[in-house]
From TrEMBL:
Species for this entry: Sphingomonas alpina
Entry keyword Electron transport: no
Keywords on record: Cell membrane, Heme biosynthesis, Membrane, Transferase, Transmembrane, Transmembrane helix
PROSITE patterns: UBIA
Segments passing through the bilayer: 23-42, 48-68, 94-111, 117-135, 156-179, 217-234, 240-264, 276-293
Topological relation to the membrane, as annotated: Multi-pass membrane protein
Subcellular location(s) of the protein: Cell membrane
Name the UniProt record assigns to this protein: Protoheme IX farnesyltransferase
Lineage: Bacteria, Pseudomonadati, Pseudomonadota, Alphaproteobacteria, Sphingomonadales
Length: 297
């Protein structure tokens, strides 16, 4: 995209769109809950600063992702309206915005909170940009399995911001999001398959077919369920969390099973896939919320 083809100067809404605010809301929520579930009470101003750093760091990662992949975003219907493919912003501006925001978030985290939190925040930004976006996304259908680790770090960052350390519970929360990501994303990929195929992105339904993707969704749900419920029997969370985890995970399992057992979807509504995708988001909100409520009562 050259400046000659740009139609409009970017305004603040375009910079906000670069940060993928809707996806980031859940990323930030899991970070907040990781912080609030820690065994020490963090000073509110420091706590707010830590969450701000996670939000800015995640936003920076989103901007750098969009800077790198404006070519494929242009091809996919879902993403063609983003500031870069739509020609409302120069790629350079997105790059500068992303790098500046990333540096600011990490430095502020290091200065105001601690180096452990700053290091994990750095790792998650680098992981999302270099490992997922630049290296794996265009090369292998395992892109989101490995790259999904980037989005699993926030509870560890929140916990580390409060305690200066990591522990078993935030590691389990990392595992939960890590194992949740394949069912979350592949459910969407099933009904967005044509977009990904058009863009030449080797997502699992495109490369291995729908049948394999459905089975993989079912398979990942099993260890995900174990990670979700584990804090209760391990004594890291109480009964309230345990009950919420068992019930919401059972619903997740039933929906995933429905998706796994479907043989075809050609020409139909893909309703079970869309329902699983939507529920996957609600599920993490409820689970992390329950963890904090359980911790504080
Ligand atoms: C590699 C891992 C992941 C991939 C490839 C992925 C992919 C996607 C895609 C393509 C969408 C649709 C977004 C849109 O309509 O613009 C989406 C939605 C969403 N994702 Fe993920 N996701 C991943 C991990 C995560 C993680 C870790 C979280 C948070 C913990 C998350 C939270 C969300 C939320 C909240 C939405 C709904 C956004 C909306 O309402 O528009 N995702 N995801
Ligand atoms: C610093 C920090 C906590 C970083 C978080 C990393 C992060 C944002 C993880 C979420 C993953 C995500 C938004 C995937 C979207 O996939 P995609 O980029 O393939 O989606 P797209 O097709 O919509 O661009």
């Amino acid at each position: 995209m050259t400046s000659a083809t740009l139609t409009l100067p970017a305004d603040w809404r375009d910079f906000l769109a670069l940060t993928k605010p809707r996806v980031m809301s859940l990323v930030v929520f899991t970070g907040l809950c990781g912080m609030l579930a820690a065994p020490v009470t963090i000073d509110p101003v420091l706590g707010f600063t830590a969450i701000l750093c996670i939000a800015l760091g995640a936003g920076a990662a989103g901007a750098l992702n969009q800077w790198y992949e404006s070519d494929i975003d242009l091809v996919m219907k879902r993403t063609a309206g983003r500031p870069l493919p739509a020609g409302r912003m120069e790629r350079q501006s997105a790059l500068h915005f992303g790098v500046g925001l990333a540096a600011f978030s990490v430095i502020l985290m290091g200065l105001a909170l601690n180096l452990v939190a700053a290091a994990i925040l750095t790792a998650s930004i680098l992981f999302y940009v270099f490992i997922y976006t630049i290296w794996l996304k265009r090369r292998t259908p395992q892109n989101i399995v490995i790259g999904g680790a980037a989005g699993a770090f926030p509870p560890l960052i929140g916990w580390a911001a409060a305690t200066g350390d990591v522990a078993t519970l935030p590691i389990l929360l990392f595992a939960l999001i890590f194992l949740w990501t394949p069912p979350h994303f592949w459910a969407l990929a099933l009904f967005m398959k044509t977009d990904y195929a058009a863009a030449g992105v080797p997502m699992l339904p495109v490369v291995a077919g729908e049948r394999t993707t459905r089975v993989q969704i079912g398979l990942y749900t099993l260890p995900m369920a174990a990670a979700a419920i584990a804090p209760w029997p391990l004594g890291l969370a109480g009964e309230l969390y345990g009950i919420v985890a068992v019930v919401t995970t059972a619903v997740f399992g039933a929906m995933a099973l429905q998706v796994a057992l479907r043989t075809t979807s050609a020409g139909d509504t893909m309703r079970p896939e869309k329902r699983l995708f939507a529920y996957s988001i609600l599920y993490l909100f409820i689970l992390f919320g329950a963890l904090v409520v359980d911790h504080w009562i």
